[in-house]
Amino acid sequence: MPLDIDKLLSTPAELTDNSTAKCPVVLMTRIRLARNLSTHCFPGRADDGERKEIFNRCREAIMATSSMKRGMSVAVDELAPLQRQVLVERHLISRELSAAKSGAGAAINKDQSVSVMINEEDHLRIQVLRNGFQLKRTWTAINALDTALESSLDYAFSPRLGYVTACPTNLGTGMRASAMMHLPALVIAGQMEKVVRAVNQLGMVVRGLFGEGSDASGSMFQISNQTTLGESEPDIVKRLHNVLQSIVDHELNARAKLLETDPAKLPDKIGRAYGILKHGHVISSSEAMNLLSLVRLGVDLGYLPDEYRTVVDRLFIEAQPGHILHRADKPKLESDERDRLRADLLRSEFANFPTPGYPTAGNN
Amino acid sequence: MASPLKCDLCDNPATVHLTQIVNHKVHKVDLCESCAQAKGVTDPSGFSLADLLLKASLNPEPTAPAGLRCEHCGYAPDDFKKSGRFGCPQCYETFTDLLEPMLDNMHKGTAHTGKIPERALQRKQLHDRLHELESELQSAIKAERYEDAAKFRDEIVQVRQEAGLSTAS
Predict the structure, then answer these.
(1) Which in A203, A228, B35, B126 has the greatest CB count within 10 A?
(2) Taking every annotated instance into account, which residue ranges of this chain make up the domain UVR (chain B) (predicted)?
C-alpha cells in the first residue's frame, strides 16, 4: 500500500499512543540493523538503475513479511519536503534518507513501530522502536524480522567480518541499539558530565545537548552502543541494558536528593512549566521541549496522574516544527506564526490536564 | 606556546574537541565549528563519533599499492579516504590491508561473534556439496564406474533443486 501521511498520523502509533509501556526516565528504545545485498554496489556507489532495482527487490521482500501487514511503503522522491520532515520527526526515516537520491524509500508498519529504510547508507536499515525501556523485546522483534527478510534476500556476509556494511564502523552485527533517556535531575544537579564519562568508558555513546541547566535539550539523551564487531547481539543488548538501568537508578536518586535538599525547587519549576503550557501564547520548539520535559518529570513524581505521561510523550513529537506546519496545512510559515500555533496546540491540550497536586505544598 | 589544534577534517583551527574512551583506549577528535556543524555534532540524534574517528584515523595516507582498484565496483583507496565508505561488499576483500589496522581501534574485537544468516550458510553448504559431487562425478566417469556416476548425477540434481538452481547442467 502506498504511504498516506494523513492516514499514518491518524492511526494510533507505538510512540504517541501506546500507554501500556509507561516508563519514567526511558522514553523510547530503538534498535537498527544495517544489511546489504551481496550482489550489488552499496547505495553510495550504485547508479540510478541499480538503486531502483535494489529498491524494488527489497520493497517486495519487506512488504511480504508479517511485520508489514497493513503497512505502507513509499519512495522518497514521491514525498513533499514537509512530509519527509514529519517522518524524520517521528523517527521513521533519517535525515540522510530524506535527502537521498532517487531509488530510496521506506516501508513503515501500521503502528509505526517498524520502519525499514531502503538505499540509505546501506541497502537496508531495519529499525524497530518501542515505547519505554524494552531492549530485549525490541531485539526479539527485529531479530525475527531480519530472519524473515534473509529468507528471500541474499545478505552480504563474511564469516569473519559479519554483516558487510558500507561504512566499516557498522561491520559485524550491523546493530545499533539505543534508548532515549529523560534525565532532568542529573542535568539540574550538574552530574551529566560524570555520566557521559562513565558511559564512554564502557564503550557506549551519549548523544544530546549539554547546555546549561536543561536549556534547549529537554534533558533528552540518546545512549547507544559504539562498537558492532567482536560482540554478539545478545551481549551488546545485555551490556547496554545494564548501563541504562544504572543510569535510570542514578536519575531516580538525583530526583530524590533534589526533593530532599531543596523541596520547593522541582515543584516550582514544574508548576511554572505547567502554567506556561496552559496559558502561553508564543512558544518556540526548544522552549516546548523544556517545558514538556518538566511536566513529564511532574508525572513521574506523582503530581499528575500517570496517563498524562503518554500525552506529554505525544506532544514531544507533535510540537516539532514539521508537525506544526503539517497540522496547519501550510508548507511554510514565519517562525513567530509557528510559535503561536504551537502555543495554541499546547494550550488546547493542557486545558484537559488536571491541576497538579504537590504533596509537600503547605506542609513545610 | 603550542600551536592551536587543527580540524581533523579540514585545516581550519579546531574549536570543538571530542574525547571518547572505548575499551580503555582514548580517541580524540578536533573539529572546526563548520565541520562540527556539518557532521551534526550539535544534533542529538544525528552524528556518529565512530564515523569521525574513522575519518580522523585515515588522515595519515593509507598504505595501499598504487593503482589498486576494486574489480567489482572500481573503487580506489582514495574514494574510501574521501567518503569513509566502501563501494561494494567485494571492496572488503580488495582493501583488506587498508581495513585491518583500523578495525582494532574502531571495534571491540576484529572477528564477528554474532548472528549468522542461516540461509546463506545453508546455501554455501549446498554449493560446497555440489562442487564436491561434481568432482566425484568426473572421477567416476574417468574410472568408468558408471553406477557410481549415475548415483552422483541424481544427487547433483537433488542438491541443485534444494539450492534453487536450474537442474539442467
Answers:
(1) A228
(2) 127-162
Q: In whole angstroms, what is the distance from residue A314 CA to residue A322 CA? A: 14
CB atoms within 10 A of CB A69: 10
- The predicted structure's pLDDT at residue A361: 47
Nearest CB neighbour to A160, from listed B23, B106, B111: B111
Span A97-122, pLDDT tens digits: 999 888 999 999 999 999 999 999 99
Q: Dump pLDDT digits (tens) for A349-358.
A: 999 999 999 8
* Tally of CB atoms within 10 A around A337: 15
Report how far residue B30's alpha carbon sits from residue B33's, in angstroms, rounded to the nearest whole number.
Answer: 10
Q: How far apart are CA A319 and CA A172, in angstroms?
A: 38
Strands (E), B63-115: none
Alpha helix stretches (DSSP H) within A207-360: 233-261, 265-279, 285-300, 308-318, 321-328, 335-350
Residue A166: which of B20, B86, B110 has the nearest Cβ?
B86
Q: Which residue of B has its CA nearest to A237?
A: B114
- State the pTM of this model: 0.84
Question: Sheet of A124-131: strands edge to edge?
Answer: A72-75, A105-108, A114-118, A124-131, A26-35, A175-182, A220-225, A204-208
* Residue A346 CB coordination number (10 Å): 23
Q: How confident is the model at residue A21 (pLDDT cuts 50, 70, 90)?
A: low
- Residue pLDDT, tens place only, A278-316: 999 999 999 999 999 999 999 999 999 999 999 999 999
Contact A185, A251 (CB under 8 A): yes
Q: How many CB atoms lie within 10 A of CB B125?
A: 13
> What is the sign of the dihedral through the CA atoms of A44, A48, A54 and A59?
positive
User: d(Cα A191, Cα A207) in Å, to the nearest integer?
Assistant: 15
Query: CB-based burial of residue B80 (10 Å sphere; 0-12 exposed, 13-18 middle, 19+ buried)?
Result: buried
Nearest to B21 by CA among B29, B13, B33: B29
What is the rounded CA–CA span in Å between residue B99 and residue B117? 23
In single-letter form, the type of residue at position A358 comes to: Y
Beta partners for residue A114, in sequence order: A128
A28-47 residues touching B, CB cutoff 8 A = 36, 38, 40-42, 44-45
